[in-house]
Structure formats: structure tokens, C-alpha cells
Amino acid sequence: MTKLAIAIDLHRCIGCNTCSIACKMQNNVPDGMLWNRVLTEGVEMFDDAVGVYPNLSRTYLPVACQHCENPACMKVCPTGATYKDEQGRVEIDYDRCIGCRMCMGACPYNARVFNWNEPVRATGFHYGDAGVPVRPRGVAEKCSLCKERTDRGDEPMCVHCCPGDARVFGDLDDPDSAVSRLWRRGGHVLLEEKGTRPQVFYVN
Description:
Blueprint: E1 4-9, H1 18-26, E2 37-40, E3 50-52, E4 55-57, E5 60-63, H2 72-76, E6 82-84, E7 90-92, H3 102-106, E8 113-114, E9 140-141, H4 147-151, H5 157-161, E10 167-171, H6 178-184, E11 200-203
Parallel strand pairs: 1-11
Antiparallel strand pairs: 1-10, 2-5, 3-4, 6-7, 8-9
């Protein structure tokens, strides 16, 4: 079996949002939407910090689809548009998505976005990997773990472009992989109590 996963080292994340932009460009994500977000913990404003000057601090939490082993989104999808593939990724068949947004309500990580309008791109044309499907209005979309790249044996673009080397990609079912070793060293997941068993996890 294969269980593709990403480990994120929170001590190495510098909050630069390179992962967000790299993901957007790779996957032809329209204006006003992100599949990959970097949250600044403990604050409401994007550029804020915790504390009182001069004693300020910032910590960052990158969040996208967690590619859960037990995905809540898949359980509620009425058409089977959301599915778990043989690589362990949670994917969407956009041709089967009817836009009911049940998956968005079920996802405890707020990882999906929705095309309410005809997708607009500032460039006026499509960009990114030519193999990425173009999503129409009225479908849910999210991180695909860069399916087109990982099918070729490449890393997801967010991993490839991270300047702090905060992300590690690999197969959790391979005990010798770097991502497996990080998990055994003390990886933790978001909202463990939800029982979704994410394959994206964090190390400190």
C-alpha cells in the first residue's frame, strides 16, 4: 500500500506564504481562492503578532486538505465525487460534483473552497500544470496533493518551493521514508478528536 503524506515542521515555517502561491500557480487556482493557507496563530489580522512591543512573537500554521485516512467529506458526498485513491490522496471528480457543499460542511479543517462564479484569473488565461483539470463554476475544490506532479514521482509544489524546508513529502507506509521517521519522532495532527486520521501532520 501507499499512503502519501506531508510533514510540516512548525519551527521551520517562516510564514512567507510561498507554499500558498506555489500551490495557486501549479493548480490554476482562480483569483480570490486559495487551496493552501498559512494562518498566524493567536491573531485576527493577517500581519498581526502576539504580545506587546517590544515583546512580540508570531507562530504560523499552514493548513490545506489533510488527506485524511478517514475523510468526513467523503462520507457525506452524495455522488461519490469525493474519493480516496490508491495513493492515499483524497481527490474530487469534478464531473461528478453537483455543488451541494456537503463536503465543505463536513470538513473540520475548512479546507475546501467553492466556485460561486465563473472563475477569473488576473492573467486572463490558464496557468500551471497542463494536466490539472480546469474547474467550472459550481464545484468544490481543494488541495489534490499535486496529483499530476506526484503521479510523475515529483513532490507537491508547496514542498518543492518551501524556502525554509519546512515540508517533507513521502509515503507513510514506507517505514524508511523521511516522513515516516518524522511521524515516529512525535508528529501530531490537527483536531485528533475528530477521528479523521489526517495524513498531513506537524512536528515541533
